[in-house]
Amino acid sequence: MLNKIKEINAEIAQFKIETKEQLEAFRLAFISKKGKVSTLFDDFKNVAVEEKKLVGQELNKLKTIAQERFDSLAEVLQSGSLSSVDSSLDLSLPPIPNELGSRHPITIVKERIIQIFERMGFNVSDGPEIEDDWHNFSALNFPENHPAREMQDTFFIEKNPDMILRTHTSNVQVRIMEQGKLPIRSIMPGRVYRNEAISARAHCMFHQVEGLYIDENVSFADLKDTIYHFVKELFGKDITVRFRPSFFPFTEPSAEIDISCLICKGSGCAICKQSGWVEIGGCGMVDPSVLENCKIDAKKYSGFAFGMGVERITNLKYQIKDLRLFTENDIRFLRQFTSAE
Ligand code: PHE
User: Fold this and answer.
1) Whole-number Å distance between alpha carbons of 251 and 248
2) Element spanning 75, H or E
3) By C-alpha distance, which of 274, 301, 309 is closest to 285?
4) Which end of the chain is more exposed for a tag (fewer CB within 10 A), N or C?
């Protein structure tokens, strides 16, 4: 028996442990219930009485040695400080790729628009997408029977017909005018909703950036200059701007903003329907009655407002022909956009 203990001691000392598998083999060989040390304990009953004391001591020593060797090697393996490496790890394999997302084209263009206006001294205002009739329509001079209020254009909240999904971000203009802190020089980016069937050219949800500038002596010339500067910053110096007389209930006079077609440079193509011009938004001088609705002294203050569709501008910038691409989340489409420069 003593000889056997010696042998196993030697075996333990020589056992090579460099991997987790070898450690497990060591455990099975020496420590487990069916391992060599346990088997010796089973045989202990056959040891002669006079030898029992010595053999018992040696056996216990062996057991401790085996356990200690196992514990210290397990610790070394755990901390990874063994020089040789687990053979199941193939370090020549390529790494798992770190997938990077990209910004949505609408976000890219919206942020670029914000950046241009911020440089001109505009701040950014936010407001609710679920709005009451006053802030979306009444304060903005929409007559009671204006078609824009009708079911085909506006999403009404069923439980409370006074509440709607905003049809433009002009509701935020009303809200900041009501706060009464003048002068105001602010833009309002955000989502708007209109009850339109979804097609390549229309969607029930889209994005606008509107702007409002109110101070003493603000004129149409200020409006024109602001828009000129914006268009040249966003689309480039060669693009020309045209103001076309139009109508909005909340501005007087009002105009549509057209820019020379980016594709054909004004000579006429399918995108501009052979006209050489494409519309990017509307604008005008804030109607004095809107100022009064918002408790601003229209004799002292005047201002201009403008609004543009972010999808429309993005379509022009990147020549995207189907609005639905913006909401389908096809990464083959989304991946292509990096910057609006
Ligand atoms: N609110 C208008 C729209 O959604 C856009 C606009 C804003 C026009 C400000 C003129 C002035 O169509």
Assistant:
1) 6
2) helix 49-78
3) 301
4) C
Please name each of the domains of the chain with its CATH number.
Answer: 2-84 (no CATH), 105-337 (3.30.930.10)
130 - beta bridge partners? 165
pTM for the complete prediction?
A: 0.72
Tens of pLDDT along 230-245?
999 999 999 999 999 9
- Any ligand 1 atom below 6 A from CB of 186: no
Confirm or reject: Cβ of 287 under 6 Å from ligand 1.
Answer: no
**Amino acid at residue number 334:** L
What CA–CA distance (Å, rounded) separates 296 from 310? Answer: 29
CA of 168 to the centre of ligand 1 (A): 7
* 65-83 confidence digits (pLDDT tens): 889 888 888 887 777 655 5
Q: Name the more confident of 258 and 102.
A: 258
70 CA to centre of ligand 1 in angstroms: 77
**Is 226 touching ligand 1 by the criterion CB < 6 Å?**
no
306 lines ligand 1 (CB under 6 A): yes
